[in-house]
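Predict the structure of Wall-associated receptor kinase galacturonan-binding domain-containing protein.
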Amino acid sequence: MAAVELTVFHVILFFWSFRTAESQVMVKTGCVYYCGRVEIPYPYGMTKGCFLDERFKIQHCNSSSGYPTLTVNGTDLVVTYISVYSSRIYVMFPIVFANCGVNDRNPVVDLEGSPFIFSSENYFVATGCNNLALMNQHNSAIGGCVSICDENRDPWIAGCSGINCCQTRIPSNLKVFNVTMTGVDGRNGSVGEKKCRHAYLSSYGGDSDPSGMKDVDSVPAVLDWGIDRRAFESLVNDGLYYNLNYTSTCENMNTSINSTIQSPIVDMNTSINPTIVQCSCNPGFEGNPYLYGNCQEGTSYGSYRRKIKAKMAGL
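Done. Here is the predicted structure for Wall-associated receptor kinase galacturonan-binding domain-containing protein.
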C-alpha cells in the first residue's frame, strides 16, 4: 500500500497547478469545500443539499488520509481531484490480477446509468508473460492487447510496447470495464510469479517491469463526467439558463447546445444511458458553471475590457 500512497501523493502534486483557475467560490452557501486534501466543487458535495443528487455524493472524508471516495453503482473509487473546468474526476482505479499467488481479483466497474464515462485519456494496460487481455462490454470483446513473454529483455529498454507489457487506447464512450485474461496458448498457467498477470486502466500508461505491481492494488485513472437531462433541466429552472450564451456554455457530449438552447428544454435521448451535458465558463470568465451567476469576469479579462472602454471614450 505504500506504493499506492506514493502514487496518490504525486497525483495531488500534479494537479496543484489547477488551483488558481478554480479558487473562486465553487460550492453552495454553507457547504464544505475541502475533504482532506481534495477540493469538492458543486455538483459534488458531502452532505444533503450540497450535492446535485446522490450520484455526486462524496463519502468517507478521512482527514488522516485526505482521500474521499465516490461510489458508482456499488464500486468505491478513491478520489484524488475533481475539475469543473475540464469536466473530469481523477480516481484510483482497481487492478485486475490473476495467478499471482493470492486470490484472483477481477472487479467489474460498471458506469451504466451514471453521469460518468471512462475518459479517452486512459490507456488499457496488460502485463505479464504471454497475457492476452480483452475488454468486454455487453458480452462482446471491444478491445485488448497481448503482452509477449521475454524474461531476458531489460524492461526499461522494452517499455510497454508488447514485451511483458502492452497498452492501447480505450474505445470511446466506454461505460463498462470487464476484463478476461488468458495465456496466448489458451492456458491460464500455473500459480507463481512468472505466470502472474495484470490488467487495468491508467491515465499514465503501463510499466513493463512486473515487479512494480507487487504492492499496488490501484492506479490513477480518469472519468469524464457531466449532468443528465433531468439534472440539467433542474439547473435551468434554478436560473442557469439565463447565463447561457454569455457567461457559460453547455455541451451535449461533442456537440455544443449553446447556440440552439432557445428553450430551457433540450431535445436529448433519454434511453438507458441518458445524454450527458457538460458546462463550462466562457473564455474570459472564471468560476463554477453549475452554480447560478458564478461565472464571473476574470481579472485579466475585466482589465482588458476596461482599457477598451476607456479608449472608446477617448480617455
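The chain has two domains: 2-225, 229-312.
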